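Re-run requested by the PI after the first attempt was lost when the workstation crashed. Everything re-entered from the original request form. Ligand of interest: iron/sulfur cluster.
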Amino acid sequence: MLREVILGKFRGFCAGVDYAVEAVENLLELRGEGARVYVRNKIVHNNHVVENFVRRGVVFVDDISDVPPDSDLVLSAHGSPLGLKEEAEAMGLRVFDAVCPLVSKVHKEAIRDHKAGYTIIYICHTDHVEAKGTMSYVPMHVVEGIGDIEKLDIINDKISVLTQTTLSVDYVEEIIAKLRVKFPQLKTQKKDDICYATQNRQDSIKELSRLADLVLVVGAEISSNSKRLVETAESAGRTSFLIESYLDIRDEWLGGVGTLGITLSASAPEFLLDEILGHLRKTYGDFVITNTHRLDEKISFKPIVLS
Ligand code: SF4
């Protein structure tokens, strides 16, 4: 019988998602609700956020050539390939770059290290839109898993390592430790590339995995940070499922579960949690909720200036 639901202390929208969503919200407000605003790629990796904007007149495109001249174009939180913003501006578009400043930080590190003569190793998932953007900045050797390390053939006294912002903290530590064995001169970045939000949410889910019989991650299949949360719970020995909404919850998962852990990925809106709790109450009766309020991460970015 479900007695308790423990929520992730750090959960839901991170500062970068807030920043990107706010940019589109503010642009809709400025141009008038229903105005045609274009966004390259999904603004953040969550279908509920994207569908909400589509209903309000936002058009999502993969290719900037699909955007008519003299339109507003917002670039997504994950960052864009080098030169794309300038190319869009040259096409006569008003471009607002909602790249998360913590993704831009990795771009700047890549440029700085490249100029300083470092060979760069980038730990990432190459099919992710953030990685595609970062890889366009300077030449880099890509490591997607430990198996790639032996293939690296680098002769340089100066080697630095960068990472995608939403990877598994533990897996990246393992990869870097192995890289260091092969390349003792390896330079890491002063401040981790894996962002504070990824780290906090992974720490939270480790705690949930200790306390709960089952852990649900509210997020999306296309979201890297969602998938890493499920993996983190599973690595801690806890069964975990990724759900997009309460509709994905299966009755058989809850059989024998007294304490359920629930968290939201960095791009999952909080209203989904309210719906899930309402559904659970209706189906299983009342239960205690622990960590009702999420902890304040004390990080925010100044909104983009729109004109
Ligand atoms: S997960 Fe981290 S890097 Fe990605 S948008 Fe959020 S704060 Fe920025």
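Saved to the shared folder this time. The longest strand covers residues 259-264.
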